[in-house]
Design brief:
The protein is 18% helix and 35% strand. By secondary structure, it is α+β, with helices and mostly antiparallel strands. The longest helix is centred in the first third of the chain and has 14 residues, at 3-16. The termini are far apart.
């Protein structure tokens, strides 16, 4: 199993958790995306791309799973 596959599976676990816990996605270019609700998140069938919808301005950000360098459960309340 590749690193990307592991990140994708872990993302699915985090998004589907009950209760949901907010988490952060960090990418290889240094950006951080704060996922505060599973409603702000979509995934591709192939498992190579995720889309994050920013709650501030309803912007869609497409992230290649291969560009994710870390996932971290956040210490903040869910949206």
């Amino acid at each position: 199993m590749s690193e990307g596959d592991r990140f994708f599976r872990r993302i699915l676990e985090l998004v589907d958790a009950d209760p949901f816990l907010p988490f952060d996605i960090r990418t290889s270019d240094g950006r951080a995306y704060f996922v505060d609700s599973p409603d702000f998140f979509a995934r591709s069938r192939e498992g190579d791309v995720i889309t994050y919808y920013t709650p501030e301005d309803d912007r869609a950000v497409t992230i290649r799973v291969s560009q994710i360098v870390s996932l971290e459960v956040a210490n903040r309340p869910a949206a």
